[in-house]
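Trehalase
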Amino acid sequence: MSGETCGDVKELRRKVKGFWRGLVRSIEPDTIRDVIEDPKMPGASRLYVPTGDSQAQELDNVVNVEVLPKLDQLTPDFVFSLNKKPGLLALATENGKPLPYIVPGGRFNEFYGWDSYFIGLGLLADGFVDEARAIVTHFVYEIEHYGKILNANRSYYLNRSQPPFLTDLARKVYDKTQDKGFLIIVLKAAVEEYESVWNSPPRLDKTGLSRYRPDGHGIPPETEPGHFNWALEGFAKKYNKSIEEFIELYNTKAISEPQLDEFLLHDRAMRESGHDTSSRFENVVADLATIDLNALLYKYERDILEFASLIGEDPKKWHSRSEARKAAVDKYLWSETEQIYYDYNTKTNEPHRFASVTTFWAMWSGLASPEQARQMVASSLPLFEQPGGLCVAAKAPKSAKQWDFPCGWAPHQILAWQGLRQYGFVNDAERLETKWAAMVATTWQRTGKVLEKYNVCDIDHAEDVSAEYGNQGSQENGFGWTNASIALAV
Ligand SMILES: OC[C@H]1O[C@H](O[C@H]2O[C@H](CO)[C@@H](O)[C@H](O)[C@H]2O)[C@H](O)[C@@H](O)[C@@H]1O
């Protein structure tokens, strides 16, 4: 790294400490209006509170508060019915006060599932332990009241989750606080989430592995206008309708289109995977036992085992579960010849041969054996390494989406750095951290912004990623997980 770049990185690192403040939100009378605001859906003005949360209900003299029905009534049809009156979902309070949370930034003005994990890591690196602990408390609240850690706390996200990271963040917070009471609460919620969301049908498959496969109905309303035009044109033509007219007919079930149902099943699963959208997942992901999710669930099993031991409960069951998952991953996902983990198609019963950088999640979670890790570093790492760090994929698809080549994203970098270090590949981790931090910092100097994602293959134009809704991030506050990556790399 040149002296100038090194200076940019250090300056950005200092800035990041201050960026967090601008991303903090809190559901309380003075701030509720700004917090409810949804750049994705202008006009959102409601706060939905779960049955039984009387504290959140007290805000009804400031905004329009509506109480949700009980958990088992949050069906796809019910959630769809809220699309005409979208709103924010209440989060946890503590000692009678709302607990603040941190949003990613840009068009994402709500509490996200996996973004919050990475934000939590950044907060811990910056010494904000209470704020990181609050993220865990919100996750627990969401599991108790909404049945899952939500994609984010908006009404239209009620039926789906995101990649699960509760236990690792809780463990890291516990390491700082040594609060066993906190661990007991987390353990109960994590087991509940594991059993009812990830280890039950429809997500659990006969292989014993899990898939992203949420329920839902209709066209996802939070996407930018025209997002689905390419997929809907043919259907609209068939009925001699405009795309808007067709959407209305389809959404209200006036017409039935099983082929579109199938496309949207995968689309929802792709959003649950956090990788919306990508050519790896389009039209297939609800059938895939991905390396991503199964690595994360292995980590849950290992963490739950440890939490149970720490509080004096019998951890045996979790040992068997993690061993069974490891065996299934080795059987179905590991490619001995190509030395990489592929996803497995549970419908066609064959590997989905798409090389993804998430293969390194098997190292982050401890799922890979030392030999598998060595082979992946030797054979697969070079496929993804680019001037700006790790790319999502090894090659360009026909039509690139934002989670495709040539993009690189902070969560992928962070998990790979940690995975590499865990298996002793410290030089590789340091080299990748340096490449990424240098690219983020020089782009920040050039554009004034810290962004959601980067073109890691063309670092002189790294901000140039126009796929889908463009590139989020700002001058004042950066972007949540990228801020975190700088806090962790430097
Ligand atoms: O509005 C379109 C989609 O936006 C979200 O996805 C992207 O931003 C999230 C927040 O940073 C991030 O978690 C996700 O990985 C990104 O792809 C949202 O999560 C989607 O559900 C939504 O349809």
